[in-house]
């Protein structure tokens, strides 16, 4: 369970019970014995671990809740899938929601005033359903001539559901103002 929680820190007791084919009370006893906090506390602990502040977007413009952020390095977010994210007919998450989570992370990770998506190469590995929790991550790979390459990945229930690369065009208005002054 410890190894699984390292990769899936936001897994609930119910998800753990399903994953390990045991009862929820068994998971709670094991968590207590291993001194692992409940999901809500693990989320709070991770959220207090991010140090930087999103600069390129307003906080509410990021799809999902940012749990870690090191500007120009990496960012992670958590997104609980609700009925608003899925097709009502089949309960499958809309593609633009999956794209929106990783794209907003790729933009949010940049330490600049204006960041725009320039190009994307994404692979969707499986469909996601109502009730799943998505953990997204964006890692800055390289910067060149105003364009930054960002590797993105979304995981649910220990499986990669989306991964790929997003290139973002970066313009820093603050730096431009200093040069003009």
Description:
The model is unreliable at 175-181 (pLDDT under 50). Helix 2 (13-20) packs across helix 3. 29% of the residues are buried. Helix content is 30%, strand content 33%. The N and C termini lie far apart (56 Å). The protein has six helices and six strands. The protein is α+β, with helices and mostly antiparallel strands. Strands 1-2-4-5-6-3 form a six-stranded antiparallel beta sheet. Strand 4 and strand 5 form a beta hairpin.
Radius of gyration, CA atoms, in whole angstroms: 18 Å
Number of helices: 6
Overall morphology: globular
In the CATH hierarchy, what is the class of the largest domain? Alpha Beta
CATH architecture of the largest domain, please? Roll
Number of strands: 6
Portion in strands: 25-35%
Helical percentage: 25-40%
Instruction: Please mark out the parts with pLDDT under 50 across 5 or more consecutive residues, or reply none.
Output: 175-181
Give the CA-CA distance, first to last residue.
Answer: 56 Å
Mean pLDDT over all positions: 85
For the largest beta sheet, what order do the strands appear in spatially?
Answer: 1-2-4-5-6-3
Largest sheet: 6 strands, antiparallel
CATH topology of the largest domain: Thiol Ester Dehydrase, Chain A
The helix/strand order is HHHHEEHEEEEH
The structure class reads alpha+beta
Query: How many domains comprise the coordinates?
Result: 2
CATH level-four homologous superfamily name of the largest domain = Hotdog Thioesterase
């Amino acid at each position: 369970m410890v190894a699984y929680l390292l990769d899936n820190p936001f897994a609930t007791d119910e998800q753990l019970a399903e994953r390990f084919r045991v009862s929820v009370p068994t998971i709670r006893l094991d968590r207590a014995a291993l001194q692992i906090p409940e999901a809500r506390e693990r989320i709070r602990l991770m959220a207090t671990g991010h140090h930087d502040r999103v600069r390129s977007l307003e906080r509410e413009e990021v799809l999902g809740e940012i749990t870690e952020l090191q500007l120009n390095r990496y960012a992670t977010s958590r997104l609980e899938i609700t009925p608003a994210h899925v097709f009502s007919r089949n309960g499958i998450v809309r593609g633009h929601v999956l794209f929106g989570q990783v794209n907003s992370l790729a933009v949010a990770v940049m330490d600049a005033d204006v960041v725009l998506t320039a190009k994307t190469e994404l692979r969707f590995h499986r469909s996601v359903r109502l009730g799943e929790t998505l953990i997204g991550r964006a890692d800055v790979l390289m910067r060149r001539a105003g364009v930054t390459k960002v590797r993105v990945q979304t995981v649910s229930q220990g499986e990669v559901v989306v991964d790929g690369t997003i290139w973002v065009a970066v313009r820093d208005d603050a730096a431009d103002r200093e040069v003009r002054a």
